[in-house]
Each structure stands twice: as structure tokens, then as C-alpha cells.
Design a protein that fits this description.
The protein is α+β, with helices and mostly antiparallel strands and about 110 residues long. Helix content is about 15%, strand content about 20%. It has two helices and five strands, in the order E-E-H-E-H-E-E.
Length: about 110
């Protein structure tokens, strides 16, 4: 199990403990964070799971290059930042213990 800190769209902070191997999107959803949405079910096509990975945790963001689908969705977002990711594309590993993410505003 690893610990994550998730800041929701309303600014609420949630400390959650989750198993590794799953997607960040699923972990946040399963934790019952109400403002969280993942409409496409994890296929990197809707952008509703857009989040910002805390800069100090950049090394834990997963592969260095974002998959092409994820990059295209983020480029079309009004709220894209250098530390933007789709949480459906982040597979949780032991190295991500303590990861902090903030959910991007809804579009």
C-alpha cells in the first residue's frame, strides 16, 4: 500500500492509502472523492481526470514521454500545465508513495 495526497476541485485535501498496480484515476474514484470524474473509463479520451502532479514528485509521474493520446487531450485543455497528466494514465508504483496531485478545474 502507498499513501497519496489528493486535492480535489474544491480545494479539499484527502489523504488516501491505495494498492499499487492500479491507475491513479481508479484509486481516487474508489476513495469516494466526490468531485472526481473519469467519463471515458480510462481511455485517455475525455480529459475529465486531468490532474497536476506536484512538481517535487515529477520523477514519479510515470514514463518520461506521455502517450500520444494523453498528450493530445492535454494540449486541448484550457488548464494544461507542464505538470499536467491524465490520472487514468498513471499506474501506481511503490516509488509513488507520498505522491501529491491536484485535480484540474472542470472544463
Amino acid at each position: 500500500m502507498i499513501r497519496l495526497k489528493v486535492t480535489d476541485r474544491e480545494g479539499g485535501i484527502h489523504a488516501i492509502e491505495v494498492a499499487t498496480g492500479g491507475k491513479l484515476m481508479e484509486a481516487v474514484r474508489d476513495a469516494g472523492i466526490e468531485s472526481y470524474i473519469g467519463l471515458c473509463g480510462g481511455f485517455a479520451s475525455c480529459g475529465t481526470c486531468h490532474c497536476y502532479v506536484d512538481d517535487r514528485d515529477a520523477a514519479s509521474r510515470g514514463p518520461g514521454a506521455q502517450p500520444e493520446d494523453e498528450e493530445a487531450v492535454l494540449e486541448g485543455s484550457l488548464y494544461s500545465r507542464p505538470n499536467s497528466r491524465l490520472s487514468c494514465q498513471i499506474i501506481l508504483t511503490e516509488a509513488m508513495d507520498g505522491l501529491s496531485v491536484t485535480m484540474a478545474p472542470a472544463e
